[in-house]
Amino acid sequence: MTLLHRRTRIAASLFTSVIFLGATLFLAACGADSEQSAPGEDAAPETLDAADHAQPGETHLRNVRQLTFGGENAEAYWAFDGSVLIYQARKPGAGCDQIYIMDDLETGESRMVSTGEGRTTCSYFYPSGDQILYSSTHLADPACPPVPDFSQGYVWPIYESYDIFTADADGGNLRRLTETDGYDAEATFSPVGGRIVFTSMRDGDLELYSMAPDGSDVQRLTNRIGYDGGAFYSPDGSQIVWRAHYPEPGPEQDDYLRLLEQGLLRPGELDIYVMDADGSNMRQVTHLGGANFAPYWHPDGKRILFSSNHEDSNGREFEIYMIGVDGTGLTRITHSEAFDGFPVFSPDGRYLAFGSNRNNEGTNDTNIFLAEWVEE
């Protein structure tokens, strides 16, 4: 996404407690002169790992394999045919996050498909598989954008230089989709219906919008003061799931609006919401407290996976959970006692890709893991 922190994703993601987990993934400081790979250059894994990294109690997961090794890797999304993954990463020794496609799910071999300039986030495939979406700041400056001033507490930058781009799957034929001033990011595609949902500041607040694949016919979907982001269409395209935080009127809302004018966002509680694809019939799914983010649909369209720290009184441990669209049937999926997030099902429901700090030997590395899904 998306201003994000790899442990919550508003172009890189959302929560004070997350900072205690280590490096701020997407919002980490990066030097303008940091060495980058060239577009299309392979990023081969440092090692191959055939071990099963499933933890005790993870009965829904089998044959959990690590696909990336080192750096910050997350938000891995499947092509609609389930053949490859697209993800964002800040590789060891690199500067800003860039976009990669993992062509070989056995070895993790990947190639960079973004420009290698600026900061990128929130990549996704077109249903056809021959084009991709992602957001980037490179038009404003090829250097990494500055990190925020934390003198006002822990805040996230909302880079107004983020725009949404489309490109061929090899990174070529790059074209800008959003032309308005302000933050445009967190874009994902509907499996049907030819619509893109995204987050934008174009009307003065962080709201959800949809648009046609060519960037035309923009329609606003949400209308509440607060952050709306990380949205995904249901498998049949009829509904949208997303994460949101709506500050209470008074000091909390005043603080939110004041920081927003400075291009900043203070982390607050997040909940999961669902609405119809046209923005109607909005309802709250989670009422757990804490940070609930990175929702993604189960292929049956009746359940949602997401990451949450609601069971950790210190707010440091994020695990993956599953819940019904009606808010019932909460089930814990991971038990790593570390960060587990960004769960994404393969289109056929056989596999689950996710980001995790497991098996990082005490570093702050976040890697992509792939598991076989076991339906109980």
Fold and architecture overview:
A hairpin with a 7-residue loop joins strand 15 and strand 16. The N terminus is likely disordered. The longest helix is centred in the last third of the chain and has 11 residues. The radius of gyration is 18 Å and the shape is globular. It starts with a strand and ends with a strand. A 5-stranded antiparallel β-sheet has the order 2-7-6-5-4, with no helix packed on it. Strands 3-28-27-26 form a 4-stranded antiparallel β-sheet, with no helix packed on it. The chain has 1 helix and 28 strands. It has 376 residues and is mostly beta strands. It has a single domain, classed as TolB, C-terminal domain (Neuraminidase), CATH 2.120.10.30.
CATH class: Mainly Beta
- What's the order of the H and E elements? EEEEEEEEEEEEEEEEEEHEEEEEEEEEE
What is the molecular shape? Answer: globular
Any idea how many domains? Answer: 1
How confident is the prediction overall: mean pLDDT?
A: 87
Strand order of the largest sheet: 2-7-6-5-4
**In angstroms, what separates the terminal alpha carbons?**
31 Å
In CATH, the homologous superfamily goes by the name TolB, C-terminal domain
Q: What can be said about the biggest beta sheet?
A: 5 strands, antiparallel
Could you name the ranges where pLDDT drops below 50 across 5 or more consecutive residues? 1-38
Portion of residues in beta strands equals 35-45%
Total strands:
28
Assign a percent range to the helix content. under 10%
- Rg, nearest Å: 18 Å
- Number of discrete helical segments: 1
Q: What is the structural class? A: mainly beta
